[in-house]
Specification:
2 copies of one chain form a homodimer. By secondary structure, chain A is of the alpha/beta class. Chain A has 14 helices and 17 strands. Helix content of chain A is about 45%, strand content about 15%. In chain A, the strands form 6 sheets. Chain A has a 6-stranded mixed β-sheet with strand order 10-7-13-12-14-15, sandwiched between helices. Chain A has a 3-stranded antiparallel β-sheet with strand order 9-8-11. In chain A, strands 1-4 form a two-stranded antiparallel sheet. Chains A and B meet through strand 5, helix 3, strand 10, helix 5 and helix 6 of A and strand 5, helix 3, strand 10, helix 5 and helix 6 of B.
Chain lengths: ~375, ~375
């Protein structure tokens, strides 16, 4: 199961609490073991094609005065999450940080409370969204999928994700909803809001049978989770369409193989997802309007070239072609051939190409 | 009428075209007159409490070689908008910029094409949204309002804006939809996504009869238009709740009195809207967790103190209290009293206070 129910999450939190209490009752200082998330222990698993945590464990020992602070912060976050789940509420990471004051718990800054939330994810083996904790950012979704809500006040209510022609924000309600039916054939994740709107209003979603996801740059983890769930539950292949630059490539790669930051969280990646472009070859083939790459762009390409997630011939080819080209292009650049070109010509070539379709199925 | 129908917009564009063609037929160089949008001609109208354009006009004269470029750019944007409206499409400002290449029209950068879009707004007296042109950014809305869509494929379909517990993005479809019914009593615009979610999931929207609008910082013009339309069409007072700093104050003030940048566009402001906080007095009263103001914050306060939109006793009082305090607080800071405090205590005080309610009605 990818998303635990509130009941399952509560049980894990309760087990954590019982562990602590029983140690105290035995007259012992409670300790908590968790996987080590430091860089040394993040390893790239070639088989899974993603970052995972190695075998190293760390221990928060309440008998150690240097651990007392982080130990109590962790227990407070656990108890805060329990309150959220019991009352059917959610909290942003920011709100959690400020809420700590109400309980006399101190965090130096939000970076510290965010880190402790990650600690709790490791200890209980759940993602923060399972604990009712969400980031502020939102991306959007639109397409022929029916979702069943489970949030308070909407339990069991279903929504057809074509009902709002502006799409739906991927917020706490949709992330915890259950996919129940679809007429779609694939998921198409796009970087920009302009492209997302274009694909809705031209009816491209119907033509390609596409569930559209607007990423808005590097998408929040909750968006990656929803894409993974739709992919698995509805058996839909995933295509990713971003700007043609190292940052766009990396948006796709993180959706495919995950990130070091989230190496301790399962259920975020779609290893068979495919980056369809804008590739450097597309820039050449379509003579797209381009901008020269900045120093930051070129430096980023060097980093990607050494990154284990890109250690496959196709990715290396894209990187070396970008290095040769030294130019980049946005998704919107296809509009130079008219605003419908991307729907009429480019996407059919990319998505409906039989060899690509085969590759997606084979992977 | 606040938003013109596609038919009205098309007619204005056609009149513009006929003006140009008839001049050519008479053997004259076509000229276009429009209000001057330079700083010299932006004046503050005390009665309306907003920036408007003064009487100065400028002329784009196609017989003047220095005008030929901007004249033809303007006509191209007009013809692009006509194509959009005729085909029921929209375009982002970014897409419009890239689309120009398809027609051999050149813009130096997007800033230039954005400026020409503003020129066209002046010439035809319509906002860019009436011409099918939208920015990329989106904010969100949730509440007891039924809207009737007019976008292609959804003509006449109605949506209840409580159907999605994550809210609805304020995109092209919602901005051009018609409000048809409401059970709400007020509009509450909030700055952060976290606050927006909190007010949905606690049922605060029902308790206060509030249509919730998430601004996400300085909101796009289309969001301000939608708020104004709901305010007028449904007779709902507007409250604005932002972070307690000069930037938050200014988000509210722009919604109330408009901005110099949009002085040529009608239908964006709600002069009776009220900024409810976080005020400097709130920061003191609730002993909120604060951060010290940065130099940029203090400089911004100085600018606001001289700004004609703040030339009223209440605004000046807020500014001088902020200057004394030299500290700022976020909306989320109320969570120090528990995550429901803002719903249980703060907002009822602010929104349900009888003297405030009277003031809103009287304004």
């Amino acid at each position: 199961m990818l998303v635990s129910s509130a009941g399952d999450s509560l049980q894990r939190l309760q087990e954590l609490g019982e562990l602590v209490i029983s140690a105290i009752k035995r007259g012992e200082f409670p300790k908590l073991e968790m996987p080590d998330r430091s860089t040394n222990n993040i390893v790239f698993n070639k088989e899974k094609n993603q970052f995972v945590l190695g075998p190293s464990q760390i221990c928060r020992d309440s008998s150690n005065t240097r651990h007392v602070r982080s130990f109590s912060q962790l227990l407070w976050v656990a108890s805060f999450a329990k309150t959220l789940l019991e009352s059917g509420r959610t909290s942003s990471l920011r709100d959690l940080y400020y809420s700590s004051e109400a309980y006399g718990v101190h965090f130096k800054d939000q970076a510290e409370s965010d880190r402790v939330v990650s600690d709790l994810e490791c200890v209980v083996g759940l993602a923060r969204e399972d604990l009712g904790i969400f980031p502020e950012e939102r991306s959007s979704i639109f397409g022929q999928v029916t979702m069943r809500y489970s949030v308070a006040g909407y339990e069991g209510r279903e929504i057809d994700l074509t009902m709002s022609p502006d799409g739906f924000p991927i917020g706490p309600a949709l992330v915890t909803a259950e996919p129940v039916a679809t007429d779609a054939e694939l998921i198409l994740a796009v970087e920009s809001g302009g492209m997302f709107s274009r694909l809705i209003e031209t009816g491209a979603w119907r033509r390609f049978g596409a569930v559209l996801v607007q990423l808005g740059g590097q998408p929040p983890r909750s968006t990656r989770r929803l894409v993974r769930r739709l992919h698995e539950a509805l058996n839909l292949p995933v295509y990713i369409f971003t700007d043609g630059d190292p940052w766009g490539m990396h948006i796709a790669q993180v959706m495919i193989s995950g990130s070091a930051n989230a190496a301790h969280v399962d259920g975020l990646t779609v290893p068979t997802a495919k980056w369809i472009g804008v590739t450097p070859a597309d820039i050449r083939k379509y003579s797209l309007p381009t901008e020269p790459m900045s120093d930051a762009d070129l430096k980023r390409l060097d980093e990607l070239a050494r990154d284990p997630r890109y250690a496959n011939p196709e990715s290396q080819r894209h990187i070396s072609e970008f290095r040769e080209l030294r130019r980049k292009a946005e998704q919107q650049a296809f509009s130079r051939f008219g605003i419908d070109f991307v729907v009429e010509e480019y996407l059919p070539d990319k998505i409906l190409d039989p060899s690509d379709a085969k590759r997606v199925t084979k992977q």
